[in-house]
Amino acid sequence: MYVGDFTLRSDLDVLKDMFTMKLRIIRLWTLEDYYNKDGIFFIQLILMDEQGNKIQGHVPNTYIYKFRNVLKEGEAYFIKIPNLTKMDERKFQLTDQMQRLTFNRETTVTPCLDFSGSVVGFAFIDYHPIIADTVPQNISLDVIGLVVAVGEIDARNEDRKRHKMRLQIQDVKGSQLDVNIWGDYCYTLSDYIQKNPNILQIVIILQFAKINIDNMLIHIMMYQSSSSILTLMR
């Protein structure tokens, strides 16, 4: 595919039905069918173009069969003829783009081997506007910090996915944030700390996180299945 044959996120036009985008999947998750362990209700994606701009993607149940074995997190693709559909602005948003790409019967996906953009798409935000409560609460954010305190795992809920751990992280300026992590992430971190008591530093990157205000206290939390954590230890 030649340069100019694909559309950047900044050039999207709701009046155009036929377009192709060159995108990397930086997050992919599914909603599983509760009654059928092999069934999937839908696939959700966060996609990024070569300029680093992100947009959500959605594969409805009707077309799961067509795309479930094709789409892989971390891989880049040419995505041709998706629908551009409006997001509900009243709900929490994972990107700053108020439309999403919905895959349909005509949509085609082919591997892209020359994607020149970022691999991970981090967009870290400074702690100060979070602490000052000047960051919009209806859109996700990325934070990075040195872990300075680790709480116990709260496992009172029968659902392991609802088990949580509270951390405190610190930036290079000494500012601190409270962070809640959930599910398997709690146990992965806890097990590593127990098996490696002499570690000097743990740095955590939390991507697509959500600001939560509880009793006037601001903390960062994972948002459903969309958030991801990268832990750097030494």
Task: Set out the fold topology.
Layout: E1 20-32, E2 40-48, E3 54-59, H1 64-67, E4 76-80, E5 83-86, E6 99-102, E7 108-111, H2 127-131, E8 141-154, E9 164-170, E10 176-182, H3 184-195, E11 202-214, E12 217-222, E13 228-233
Parallel strand pairs: 3-6, 10-12
Antiparallel strand pairs: 1-2, 1-4, 2-3, 4-7, 5-6, 8-9, 8-11, 9-10, 11-12, 11-13
Describe the structure.
It holds the Pfam family DUF223. InterPro entries: NA-bd_OB-fold, RFA1B/D_OB_1st. It comes from Lactuca sativa. This is Replication protein A 70 kDa DNA-binding subunit B/D first OB fold domain-containing protein. Residues 10-112 form the Replication protein A 70 kDa DNA-binding subunit B/D first OB fold domain. With 234 residues, the chain is mainly beta. It folds into two domains: 9-111, Beta Barrel (OB fold (Dihydrolipoamide Acetyltransferase, E2P)), CATH 2.40.50.140; 127-233, OB fold (Dihydrolipoamide Acetyltransferase, E2P), CATH 2.40.50. The chain contains three helices and 13 strands. The strands form two sheets. Strands 5-6-3-2-1-4-7 form a seven-stranded mixed sheet, with no helix packed on it. A hairpin with a 5-residue loop joins β2 and β3. 23% of the residues are buried.
Number of domains: 2
Mean pLDDT, as a whole number?
89
Distance between the termini: 43 Å
Q: CATH homologous superfamily of the largest domain - what is it? A: Nucleic acid-binding proteins
Proportion in β-strands = 35-45%
CATH topology of the largest domain: the name is OB fold (Dihydrolipoamide Acetyltransferase, E2P)
Radius of gyration: 19 Å
Structural class determined from secondary elements: mainly beta
Protein name: Replication protein A 70 kDa DNA-binding subunit B/D first OB fold domain-containing protein
Pfam families: DUF223
InterPro entries: NA-bd_OB-fold (IPR012340), RFA1B/D_OB_1st (IPR003871)
Organism: Lactuca sativa
